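Fill-in record for LysR family transcriptional regulator.
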Amino acid sequence: MDLVGGCRAFVSVSETGSFTAGAALARIPQPVASRRIAALERHFGERLFDRSTRRARLTPFGRDVLPAARRLVQLAEAMEHDAKRARQRPVRVAVPATCGVRELAGLAAEARALEIHLEFRAAGPGERAELVRTSEVRAALTAVPAEEAVWSVPLGVAGAALGPSRVVHLETLRAGRSAGPRRCVRIQPEDDVPHVRDRVLRVRDAVGLSPAQVAVADSLTAAAAEVYATEDLLLCSTAQAEELGLPWRPIGELDVARGYEVAAALAEDADRLRTTLREAVGRCLGAGR
């Protein structure tokens, strides 16, 4: 039987002295309240109310068990409250600093419609997995090689002085190939990971660029400032190039991409991000652009 439901009806009727008023207090129809109390009486093998009068008067047995019934109802209500709070407890997710506000807000709104409450913490690629390990976040979008990734974001170069060519060959940046100062490729912190940075450095060496012509910037802002002020190029995604108002081209000698996976303390959190919210997460990362 529904012991909690029966006790809730029992307590409500005892407090009002009426089956009708007690049912209203318990927010159930009066016949339902009567059935639940009758079931409770059968369960205990004793009458809870004296039905010989117009008011619902407690029997001696009813008075004796009422305190325990109240405790059970209060405990059930507390448990329901705690369960609701647990469902609404935010899932903190470490995300790349490259994720835009608009896209993150869209992800949060889509998750909320599924009763998943997300909060975001922007962090660098080396920090995000550590935040999961130290329980500062429940999940993180971690940087992995593209071939191991759930989401893949192709990279190319953007710059204010790109010509009409549909592809940029890094060997054209070699000293003597063009007049003026040596042009550099700026790598932003999000791409300062071996599976991206080292591949660019190998191409740098293969085409004869100087070491200084491929440099890791302290921040995306610093890298973008150099690109705006000079003819340097920024290694970035198409989404970032659009946000910065810069033309974008793929790299002729290199097919390179960011890759992202989910690290999470709970498998359920990881599955939600990988499957239920996969497309919205991909938009935040710039995947599929």
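KEY FINDING: The first helix runs from residue 3 to 16.
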